[in-house]
Write a structure and sequence with these properties.
456 residues, alpha+beta, BirA Bifunctional Protein, domain 2, Herpes Virus-1, Rossmann fold, seven-stranded mixed sheet, five-stranded mixed sheet, 14 helices, 24 strands
């Protein structure tokens, strides 16, 4: 069999498979859909949950100095002032004067080889944009006539508890998931037996008012983040930081992602409070290498800001030396949608068969595959085979997520399971009724073996 390289596949192929096989649907699809919003279907939900379980096991279960958290999405308005999101969480936008389409100026400049520093003021960005206007055209109508660059805040406002409409103290949906960890630092220290250095892990939702969501799950307006915040003594961060980087890299490999499709990228332009920042990038179809996870040395900025804005002392006192200090934070932040997309892209394989046909296979790591076993009766019109197949299905489903399928011929059933990444298909035939053995077919090799039901 000839295998087509994963990176020869287009994003359109991934989107098509995702909808056809029940992994991901466009949000509000029957109403025409909404840009940047997606619903995970039956198989997508299973795959996403398995990725989450793998992440939680690696970052909480197997690490004795990490604990978990699930904080509320809504937070006090001052949280977003303290974090800098109200004043500085924005994208530079310009509007086409012909069709009113808005563009991300920094992205469009980058596409023509011009780097826009995130620290630039609106005035500096306008000067840079003006110098390169002739190279940038509207993606919708093709015009090159844009208005001035303006900062567009990405926080999504809510009216939670606001019945007056005066918006005097607006409440926001979370722009990032990690703030809940900082807010509960003192609660965790006071209530759980943890000592610095220790980490807190959380999976939670985030929302961003993206003006141009794109590339399927890569940039969306609603998404989940899997974050860890590791609290260390000031200036005692180097060894822990390097270990965290190593652990995160190895986790992606444990999912089955090919190492050649991953790379490190160090940030050149750091925000003022950061000491160091790296991204793990994945080589997405049609997009190339781009961030799937960020790993950041944030110094003491976050706890210091929340101490200042809340008036609560968030310093830590060493129980042995009585030394008091604001811990530094080493952060990992992964977009679960981006990790899900990377897993899908990496597993997507098209193989040429000896008979000249092809098959599409999702060669997922069996640990995260949505369905572990598919159980088939050889013939659906033979009650004894169907009854035995259901018996085997009920046995296996006590431990694994399984699927029963008696629709169509065996070849078509195999192809369906190949496309959703099922590692093993179990066929119940007439010999099963005699000796309690079944045919087990391997997804990747298509090899088949006879095996006792009790050995499954």
């Amino acid at each position: 069999m000839t295998v087509q390289n994963t990176q020869d596949v287009s994003m359109e192929d991934i989107v098509s498979l995702a909808k056809r096989r029940g992994f991901v649907y466009q949000g509000s699809d029957i109403y025409g859909g909404m840009a940047g919003l997606y619903d995970f279907g039956p198989y997508g939900t299973e795959l996403l949950n398995n990725i989450k379980k793998s992440w939680w096991k690696a970052n909480v279960q197997l690490k004795p100095n990490y604990v978990g958290l699930d904080s509320a999405m809504f937070k006090h308005p001052k949280v977003w002032e303290a974090s800098g999101h109200v004043g500085g969480f924005s994208d530079p936008l310009a509007e086409c004067k012909k069709c009113n389409t808005r563009i991300r100026v920094d992205k469009e400049l980058g596409a023509v080889g011009v780097t826009a520093d995130e620290k630039m003021s609106e005035e500096e960005l306008n000067s840079l944009f003006d110098a390169n206007r002739d190279k940038i055209k509207c993606p919708k109508c093709g015009a090159k006539d844009f208005g001035p660059v303006k900062a567009f805040n990405l926080l999504v406002k809510s009216n939670l508890g606001d019945f007056t409409g005066d918006d005097a103290e607006p409440v926001y949906l979370p722009g990032e998931a990690c703030q809940g960890i900082y807010l509960n630092f003192k609660n965790i220290v006071d209530s759980v037996r943890v000592k610095v250095p220790f980490g807190v892990a959380q999976i939670n939702k985030a929302f961003r008012n993206e003006i141009s969501p794109r590339n399927f799950l890569f940039r969306t307006r609603e998404f989940e983040q899997a974050d860890t915040q590791f609290f260390v003594k000031p200036n005692e961060n180097k060894l822990a930081y390097e270990q965290i980087k190593k652990d995160r890299w190895n986790w992606y490999l444990s999912l089955g992602i090919k190492e050649q499709n991953l790379r490190w990228k160090q940030h050149d332009n750091l925000v003022f409070y950061a000491k160091d920042a790296w991204d793990i990038e994945y080589n997405y179809p049609d997009l190339g290498f781009d961030e799937v996870e960020g790993i950041h040395d944030r110094t003491d900025y976050d706890l210091s800001q929340h101490s200042k804005f809340s008036g609560i002392d968030l310093s830590y006192t060493d129980p042995v030396t009585n030394e008091k200090y604001i811990p530094w934070v080493l952060e990992t932040s992964m977009g679960l949608g981006r990790a899900f997309l990377a897993v899908m892209c990496d597993a997507y394989t098209v193989e040429e068969l000896p008979d000249g046909g092809t098959r599409t296979v999702l060669k997922l790591n069996p640990e995260i595959a949505p369905i572990k076993y598919a159980v088939f009766p050889l013939l659906k019109n033979k009650p004894e085979l169907v009854a035995k197949a259901k018996e085997v299905y009920n046995l296996l489903s006590q431990k694994y997520m399984c699927e029963f399928d008696d629709n169509g011929n065996i070849g078509k059933r195999y192809r369906r399971q190949d496309e959703i990444g099922t590692p093993n298909c179990v066929v119940i035939d007439f010999d099963t009724l005699k000796d309690d053995t079944v045919t087990v077919r391997d997804r990747d090799t298509t090899n088949q073996i006879r095996q006792k039901v009790s050995d499954l």
